[in-house]
């Protein structure tokens, strides 16, 4: 699980642990990983932490090797790591563009590439990518570079599905809408209320909602599903007109 120390990644890790899986969470910050492991730990659970920057291909190779050694194998890669900086188009710098593509796109590709041998060896490998509705389906001012990275992930998923099929590996993507995570805490009540007003179900999603979709793609029941996307947004992308909600 990349990006597994907080937010959606932490929620996915919790759900997989509840289902009886052994889980390794990877991230760039050792202290955050340690806090997450403490939160996730319980009798009978195996939770491993790996410090790795997914934008670094060599770090991804090491991550995959450590994961396989500590867990005794690897059946599922949840490629969840991502960054979410805001900047208007006129303010974007070369570093802004390079960094978000390195983490969100390069990190997805390098993680899948590094884990492929272990996933092939498992005989039922699964890759689940956390993308977004922003980019593939919707747009938002200030998130053009983020949106581009999330759309790029889906291009990778579709082509990787064809290459991975010969290894018995599936790869699919979950597209979250507005999810209640730590990243929303500083927005304020009015901003959150505005977000909720755009969702027909009149609530923000939870990390558990995304985890349920990831669990499906990781399951035996999804063995004939690959190169696909699943939007989990409470109906946010459905209305033709705002008043139709």
Keyword list:
7 helices, 44% helix, KR_dom, Rossmann fold, alpha/beta, 12% strand, secreted, two-stranded parallel sheet, four-stranded parallel beta sheet
Structure report:
Strand 4, helix 5 (144-164) and strand 5 (170-176) form a beta-alpha-beta unit. The strands form two sheets. The chain has a four-stranded parallel β-sheet, sandwiched between helices. It is globular. The protein is built from seven helices and six strands; from the N terminus they run H-E-H-E-H-E-H-E-H-E-H-H-E. The model has no long low-confidence stretch (mean pLDDT 95). By secondary structure, the protein is α/β, with parallel strands linked by helices. The protein has helices spanning 7-18, 30-40, 57-71, 94-122, 144-164, 189-197, 207-218; strands at 23-27, 47-51, 76-79, 126-130, 170-176, 229-232. The chain has a single domain (7-244), classed as Rossmann fold.
Short précis:
The chain is α/β, with parallel strands linked by helices and 245 residues long.
Write the layout of secondary structure elements.
Layout: H1 7-18, E1 23-27, H2 30-40, E2 47-51, H3 57-71, E3 76-79, H4 94-122, E4 126-130, H5 144-164, E5 170-176, H6 189-197, H7 207-218, E6 229-232
Parallel strand pairs: 1-2, 3-4, 4-5, 5-6
């Amino acid at each position: 699980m990349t990006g597994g120390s907080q937010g959606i990644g932490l929620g996915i890790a919790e759900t997989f642990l509840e289902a009886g899986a052994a889980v390794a969470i990877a991230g760039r910050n050792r202290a955050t990983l340690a806090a997450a492991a403490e939160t996730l730990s319980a009798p009978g659970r195996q939770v491993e932490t790996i410090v790795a920057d997914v934008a670094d291909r060599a770090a991804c190779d090491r991550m995959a090797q450590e994961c396989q050694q500590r867990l005794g194998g690897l059946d599922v890669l949840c490629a969840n790591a991502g960054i979410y900086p805001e900047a208007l188009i006129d303010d974007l710098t070369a570093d802004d563009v390079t960094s978000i593509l390195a983490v969100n796109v390069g990190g997805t590709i390098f993680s899948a590439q590094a884990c492929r041998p272990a996933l092939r060896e498992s005989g039922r490998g699964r890759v689940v990518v956390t993308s977004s509705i922003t980019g593939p389906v919707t747009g938002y001012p200030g998130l053009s570079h983020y949106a581009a990275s999330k759309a790029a992930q889906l291009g990778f998923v579709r082509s990787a599905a064809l290459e991975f099929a010969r290894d018995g590996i599936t790869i699919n993507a979950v597209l979250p809408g507005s999810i209640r995570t730590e990243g929303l805490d500083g927005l304020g009540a009015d901003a959150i209320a505005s977000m909720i007003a755009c969702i027909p179900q009149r609530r923000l999603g939870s990390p558990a909602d995304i985890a349920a979709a990831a669990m499906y793609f990781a399951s035996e029941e999804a063995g004939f599903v690959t190169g696909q996307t699943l939007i989990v947004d409470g109906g946010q992308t459905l209305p033709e007109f705002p008043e139709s909600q």
